[in-house]
Amino acid sequence: MTRQEIVEKVNSLLADEFEVDAALFTPEANVRETLQLDSLSLVDLVAIIQQTYKIKIPVGELREIKTFADLYNYIESHLA
Description:
With 80 residues, the protein is an all-alpha fold. Helices cover 64% and strands 0% of the residues. It has helices at residues 3-18, 31-35, 39-53, 59-62, 68-78. Helix 1 (3-18) packs across helix 5.
């Protein structure tokens, strides 16, 4: 899966799930602010990523994911 495919799929999934315009998902945009995530919706985000890509996101590593670029990088680096 290419980086572009990851970006497109993640953006589509998150736009649908959180009803936010995918045009707001720039690499430097803050994930939590852009998606207006509270603690419960953050769990939904993690579940979507884990289910879609079959990867685990430990809580400690989740704290390091601040921007959409961080999220794309995390997914890309954990796909085997």
